[in-house]
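My hope is that you will study the record closing this message with an eye to the fold:
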Amino acid sequence: MHPSVPAAYPDASLRHARWADLAAAAAEANAFFAPDMLEAALDHLAAHRGVRLIEVQEEGRSIGLLPVAVSSSHGRLPVSCVVNWMHDHCFFGAPLIRRGHELAAWRGFLAQLDGADWAPGFLHVECLDAAGANAAALEALCVEQRRGRREIHRYDRAMLRSDLSADEYWESHVRAKKRKELRRLQKRLAELGRIETRLLVDAADLPGWCQDFLTLEAAGWKGRNGTALVCKREDEAFFRASCAAALEGGRLHFLRMDMDGRAIAMLVNFRHGDGAFSFKIAFDEALGRFSPGVLIEIANLRAVQGESGIAWMDSCAAADHPMIDSLWAERRTIVQYRIALRGRGARRLARGAAFALANGAEHISQMMKGQA
């Protein structure tokens, strides 16, 4: 059966059930587009963003889900295009595709975009795993359809993927000098009070943990810069809703380090499939000389490596991050692509011109930088 566009869902519970079924069978994990986080983002962060959900069904079930939006520019180029929607708190852009239906899902995505009168220019897909199921299927389909595809950026970011125990990993991948220094900091911090590290277990504690995290984050540089979650009502609501949904589904990995019962460092991770994504960290900057952010990452290493249900964790960090890169040895290559869209008549010509213009502008820029 050919992929089809789903009819509108009569209620949110049916939509959630279909997306949950798709997420459970996803060929590539992405906690940010699983129902826990996506529904919270749609409820609190999608207003006035023009977000559209490109969904593909086959034999009555969803085989692909791609949130998109229209951007009025492409980098510095004033050319409109379609982008995979990634809000400010989304750090991985791979759409959900059902395992075994990768090509069919992408065929359905592109067919819908080709036929959409609202879709300008081309498709700009950000933040995919270069070695993931989405990148492989997209490349194969573009070759099959002789559709233009251009990789426009890539970088490596830290991830944790190892069969070693936490102690073995620590000894093998962290320099002896750094291990010695961190042990010294742990000892000095313990001299100030009773240090306790724990994972969230009881759902009744979640509201308090969320408030502690928001308070801790707001007291630091993000609060001063106006980028802490609590600075925007919609960001705070998204955070609380995501954590609540993920905890209910058994996918929240919330870690804290306390001194005499007061939070001095907290770390939020979201699980999907056999992996997890590191979402947000906050720590008491008044204790900065003891590196509480690094110390909770050490605790996180022990928690992850001691958890049989987590095979890997994506740091979601920027390239060359000085802290996490020194602790985690593995890397994930993140890429973005420009994909040509088709259509009929004038729309096809306009889209072809936009794709060619963007490629040409990029080539000229590379020549000027001596990279071509």
